[in-house]
Amino acid sequence: MGKLLAEATPISAKFVLLIKTQARLKNGENSGYSQTYSSKTGFVFWPGVSFFCPEFNPREYRKVSYEVVDFQKDVIDRSKQIPIVVDFWAEWCGPCRILGPILEKLAGASDGRWALAKVDTEKHQQVAMEYGIRGIPNVKLFIDGKPVQEFTGALPEYAVAQWLDKALPSQFKKDLDEAKTLLAAGDAAGAQKLLAGIVATDGENHEARTLLAQIFFPDDPSKALTLVQGIEEDSDHFAMAEAIVNAATMFRKLDVPEKLPDDPVKKQYLNAIASMKAGKYDDALQGLIEVIRTNRYYDDDGARLACIAIFRLLGENHEVTKKHRRDFGSALNV
Length: 334
Prior knowledge:
This protein has helices at about 70-75, 95-110, 125-130, 155-165, 175-185, 190-200, 205-215, 220-230, 240-255, 265-275, 280-295, 300-315, 320-330, and strands at about 5-10, 15-20, 35-40, 45, 50, 85-90, 115-120, 140-145, 145-150. By secondary structure, it is of the alpha+beta class. It is elongated and about 75 Å long.
């Protein structure tokens, strides 16, 4: 009869038994469902198996099928309305039978944030070839008709959940895009209002936190530092968070210069940090690069770290970054 999976899930404070089975017929279609429910005993009967569920409501029982029939319609077109996680699998694939139930479970708990579509590579060989499927299970995330993220292999549930958290677009994407547009146009106040609203609602939104920290950084580095605390290396926004932490750490050195070791470059190093704090990044980079040339490892490689922090804060396309990148690289190789 195929694989039988029974699971109890709470719905409206009740436990409803969902029985799912797939039986491959000659025409390759999924079978329907057949069960007998006894309202007197609370038992659901299946040939050879019975389950006790006194609050089972047959009206709430429904079949959930994730199998793709028309890839263009079920994945490409639909992904323009909602992110689609596509599971490329095959009946003969053992790891696929491990990953499949995990994806179905997470899809059922996604609260409409994304939808699951399963593509049998035996039935849809042309689709599998088009998307370069060489090993299965292969999972791809489709957004706006295109695959944007993927993984291969039967990952454990926690790893799949982590992948989804990183791969899926933020529910605040529209506000984030608008905030970036405002920042590019020089409207920091407007961007700050939008970003503050996102952070207040979703404190784990690393992109919003780092963007907001960048706004606060020139005038209130302590507040910027607070915003990026807890953003670790596994975050896509760690590089910016690290830059803010390193820059804020540099600024503190101005309050306790006596803690820095005596050296001919000490004065130049402090002056460069002061320029950095004042937002005079051109002067700061020039001074820091000279410190690197003279004493590369002064203050535990502090000048190099400060330069990298400035480059990240300004961005690689900023004119000041472009001006000093080559000199920075050559100073490191002296």
